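Why do we care about 3D structure at all? Because function follows from shape, and shape follows, mostly, from sequence. That is the central idea of this module. The next example makes it concrete: a single protein chain, its amino acid sequence, and then its structure expressed as C-alpha cells.
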Amino acid sequence: MKAKRVYDLPTRVFHWLFATLFVVAFTISNTVDDESLVFSYHMIAGLTLCFLVAWRLVWGIIGTTHARFSDFPLHPRKLAGYFKGLLSRDHKLWSGHNPASSWAAVAMMACTVGLGITGYLMASGLAGEDLEEVHELLANGFLVIVLLHLAGIVLHTSKHRDPIWKSMVNGEKQHVPDDSVPVQARRISGVFFLVLTIAFASYLLQNFNSDTRELNLLGSSLHLGEAEDEDEHESDDDHDHDDD
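And the structure:
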C-alpha cells in the first residue's frame, strides 16, 4: 500500500514544538522551586506555547485539508464509534486526525490558552491564590490529556498494526481511504513558522532581566517568579537598622 502525505510541514512543526515546550514548562514548574531563577523559564516556555497556539489557530483556517479544524471529526457519535472500532477488528480509516486525536488537540490548545491567561494575570500581580489553583488544575489536566493521547496511540498501533505516530514525523500514512488525496507539503510555510517561533522566544529572552526577573512584554512588565523585589529588601534592611 502506497503511503500518502496527510500532514503538511507547519502542522508537524507545531506538533513537536508544542510537545517539547509543554514538557519543558511542566518539568520546570514541578521540579524547580519558584524562588529559583530557572523557574522563570517555565513561564517563558508557557508564553511561547501560547504564541504557537495563536499561529496554529490561523493555520487551522488557511492550512491544508487535514490541518484545518473543519476537518476535525468532533461529533460525539464519531468519537464513540472510534472507541468501539479501536477495541474490535472493524475500524474506520481516517486520513487526518481521528476523533480521539481531534478532541485531544482541541483540549490541549484550550488548556494552553487557559494557562496563558492565568499565568499572565499571576505575573502581572492581578491574581490571587484561587487563580493560582486554577492554573495548577489546568496544567495537571493538560498532563492527563497528554497521557491519554499517548495511550491511545500505543493501543491503536498495537491493535491494528498501524503506526500512526509516524505521520507526525514524515507526514505520511499508509492506512488511509483509497479516495484520499495527498496534501501539499508547504515546506516554506513550515520553515517560516519555525523561524517565527524562534524569533518570538528570542524576543522574550532578550527582554527578560534575570536580575530582577522582570519581563517587558510589549510594554507590560511581568514578574516571572516569587522572589522579593529590591524595594522590599531595602525596606526590611531599614527596619532592621531602626530596631538597632
